[in-house]
Amino acid sequence: MDYGCVVPARFLDRPNRFVAHVLLGQETVTCHVKNTGRCRELLVPGARVYLERGRNPGRRTAWDLIAVEKDGKLINMDAQAPNKVFAEWAAAGNFLPDVTAIRPEYAYGASRLDFCLDGQHFVEVKGVTLEQDGRCRFPDAPTERGTRHLHELIRAVEEGYRATAFFVIQMADAEDFSPNDETDPAFGVALRQAAEAGVEIAAWCCRVTPGSIALDRPVPVRL
Predict the structure, then answer these.
(1) Per residue in 128-137, pLDDT tens?
(2) Beta partners for 218?
């Protein structure tokens, strides 16, 4: 997945979850943050961030904040990127061989799951930006919606479908992945239940540049 015009800036503050103030050159500008999560460990004053110029000239903000450097590591924090990256990767036959149909936003039960492949394999994609010493965790804030999706995947397996919870780690060189039990114990319980029920759990780190992100390799999942 490639971005358009990307430039570096310095993070100043985040008055709400939708926008941030950054120093772009010598000018303080307001940009849209493409991630409504807390991201407190990422968006700290003075952090080097990367902005993509918005493609809608009528927008109130001209730039989108898409990536940040943390302790020398580049982290993509665009919440829309994981689904786009997975879709490109799956369409190239890297997830299932000979896949012919990839349907996004597939209605199942009380939810819309991210993807249904060939009418028989449901995939729910989650983006991971929380990292410490190479160990990555999800979520960075409680997510009732995420837990509900895991229960829908369990139900799908019980009804004879295949199902995968796929975690896109939006950085390189991750050591492993695990649920963030401290922040959301219910999600951790649900993820372990899903694994026991036959839902496949996968986590992949990415190759990340300021202007691109692509899936790279699987990392161990620690439940």
Answers:
(1) 999 999 999 9
(2) 204
